[in-house]
Amino acid sequence: MKRISSLIFALCLLASSSIWTKNTDGQSTVNTSTELQPISFAQWDGILEKQLGNITVVDFWAAWCSPCIKRFPHMVEMHHKYKGRGVRFISLNLDEQGDKESIDWANDFLGRIKAVFPNYHMDENMTEAFERLDLLGLPAVRIYATDGTEAHRLSGDNPYQQFTEKDVENAVQDLLIQ
């Protein structure tokens, strides 16, 4: 009996310090990894579909994008602030396919800032990825409502009108009160 109690206690500790995610089979698993997972366009569509019922914040970024890197720690803070309120954070790295140096740097960066939400790398041609994802540039954040519709699109397309961390937070709060 003592062993079972210890096991239950250990599982509770693990669950409280980790994030529950769904694997590709739709089963719940504990995600404590910060490492980028390579994905295809088809897999990306499936990941978004699995977020239905949650507000989903997607941060599009790359290692070469200094505004992305500067803002990313705030996304981690927001993840911790909103994770218990039905808000999911996902990052999608858009470094060039096969650029091992950038991917290694990105993985190290994610580990250092403890970005324990799902982190993906689009393992497709970068130009095609930007086109397919309807991105003109980075940084970019898209926020999806619980029904899966895109509710907010924040981008750095206009250098004279950049979005801020506060814009991201305001968009999340807007969806939470609806």
Concise summary:
By secondary structure, this protein is of the alpha/beta class.
Topology:
Layout (H helix, E strand, L loop, with lengths): L1 H15 L2 E4 L5 E4 L5 E3 L1 H9 L5 E7 L4 H17 L4 E7 L6 H13 L6 E4 L3 H7 L7 E5 L5 E6 L9 H13 L1
Parallel strand pairs: 3-6, 4-5, 5-6
Antiparallel strand pairs: 1-2, 4-7, 7-8
Any overview of this molecule?
The protein has six helices and eight strands. It has helices at 2-16, 41-49, 66-82, 100-112, 126-132, 165-177, and strands spanning 19-22, 28-31, 37-39, 55-61, 87-93, 119-122, 140-144, 150-155. Strands 3-6-5-4-7-8 form a six-stranded mixed sheet. Strand 5 (87-93), helix 4 and strand 6 (119-122) form a beta-alpha-beta unit. The termini are far apart.
Report the order of strands and helices.
HEEEHEHEHEHEEH
Q: Separation of termini?
A: 46 Å
What spatial order of strands do you see in the largest sheet?
3-6-5-4-7-8
Number of strands: 8
Task: Please supply descriptive tags for the structure shown above.
single chain, Glutaredoxin, alpha/beta, globular, 178 residues, disordered N terminus, 6-stranded mixed beta sheet, 8 strands
